[in-house]
Design a protein that fits this description.
- With 291 residues, the protein is α/β, with parallel strands linked by helices.
- It has 10 helices and 11 strands.
- It has 2 domains: 138 residues, Rossmann fold (3-Layer(aba) Sandwich), CATH 3.40.50; 130 residues, Rossmann fold, CATH 3.40.50.2000.
- Strands 2-1-3-4-5-6 form a 6-stranded parallel sheet.
- The model has no long low-confidence stretch (mean pLDDT 94).
Length: 291
């Protein structure tokens, strides 16, 4: 049976960035890959109308309706895969879904360990398709931060020291920051972790890789999985002096052998989350559903 692939987002929360990227843009990536016909793809915020489809249920739908709603979706002959992104799921929680989608390597490990009876498919997060196409890397060094400003450690101190420029980038409707991205050879990717955070995809690193930049990032498991343990520009001391030192170190390394090694790691990351890699992973998910 060939099932239609339908991305399901919340009726009210479907405007969240995670819904836009993991529903609308994922659908667009698969469509332009040519791996599925347009008639076999769709996005909806009213999944109760779907029949005999593979429903990829986004975080936004789960936040609105809870896990209990998944059972109703399965009653219509659908196969249900959940894509919670960074939504927290407790070990051993009841999940009335057929497949689990991991958007990060640490989430993939967690799902395989705590929900071994359900197949887990890793579908990499991608960089926003509206970002400018990669061009020549900047000839002058500069460090930028792109994300929610409340998550940026020591923002005011780093601005005062002239070490980083900060750009608010947490609203999918605002795209002005995207035109600033190509100006920076380095992205500051440290973040202040929040109590509500689940497993976070390495989105700041993915954006930097898409644009040919390197990152300065804390040595967390997701970054290590993406860049390797020997990546040269990790932050090993998350204090303000430690971050100062890390940013000064990457600035002084601009154009050197460690810089080239970092660029090589970022190139490998970009390939692993390319449109082709993402589309192939979605097709792999569809095969698990018998489509």
């Amino acid at each position: 049976m060939s099932r239609k692939l339908v991305f399901v987002k919340g009726l009210r929360l479907g405007r969240l960035g995670s819904a836009y990227l993991r529903c609308d843009q994922l659908c667009a990536i698969v469509a332009r890959s040519g791996l599925l016909d347009a008639d076999d793809l769709g996005v909806t915020d009213r999944p109760e109308r779907a029949r005999d489809s593979l429903l990829v249920v986004n975080k936004s739908y789960l936040m609105e309706n809870g896990a209990a709603a998944l059972g109703q979706l399965r009653r219509n002959g659908n196969v249900v895969a959940i894509d919670p992104v960074d939504l927290k799921i407790a070990p051993g929680a009841r999940i009335d879904a057929d497949l689990l989608i991991a958007s990060s390597r640490m989430q993939e490990t967690f799902f395989r360990e705590h929900f071994p009876s359900r197949p887990t498919v890793y579908v990499p997060h991608h960089a926003d398709l509206r970002l400018p196409a990669p061009g020549e890397p900047p000839r002058q060094f500069g460090t930028g931060y792109f994300g929610a400003l409340y998550n940026a450690p020591f923002m005011e101190d780093l601005v005062a020291a002239g070490l980083c420029t900060f750009h608010k980038a947490d609203d999918p409707a605002e795209t002005g920051w995207m035109q600033e991205v190509p100006r920076y050879a380095c992205h500051y990717a440290a973040r202040s972790w929040q109590g509500f955070d689940g497993f976070k995809p390495f989105t700041k690193g993915i954006i930097a890789a898409r644009c040919g930049a390197v990152v300065v990032v804390d040595r967390n498991p997701e970054a290590i999985a993406a860049l390797g343990a020997d990546y040269p520009f990790y932050i090993d001391d998350p204090s303000l002096p430690g971050i100062h030192d890390a940013l000064e170190r990457v600035r002084s390394a601009f154009g050197s052998d460690p810089w080239d090694a970092a660029r090589d790691a970022m190139t490998r990351l970009a390939a692993s989350v390319s449109e082709a890699a993402v589309a192939e992973s979605v097709i792999r998910l569809r095969r698990h559903a018998g489509g």
